[in-house]
Amino acid sequence: MAQVTLYLDEQTEEQMKAAARTAGVSNSRWVADLIRERTASEWPESVRRLAGAWADFPTAEELREGLPDDVPRKPL
Q: What is the per-residue pLDDT across 10-21, written as a single tens digit (0 to 9) for each?
């Protein structure tokens, strides 16, 4: 496992410690989790489970109903 040295000003260090304490994890674990979260290339499972959760959510066609046609786009 790699080790990384971080230089933080006092206020930022206190904020990190408070956030880690609130999350119930070590400072190192809190920073590692934050890095994983910020560099993830997929939606979290909690978000993926929301797909289809709103049975009454309108379709794209229903949302666009009554609106004028979109302007033509330049081809790529």
A: 999 999 999 999
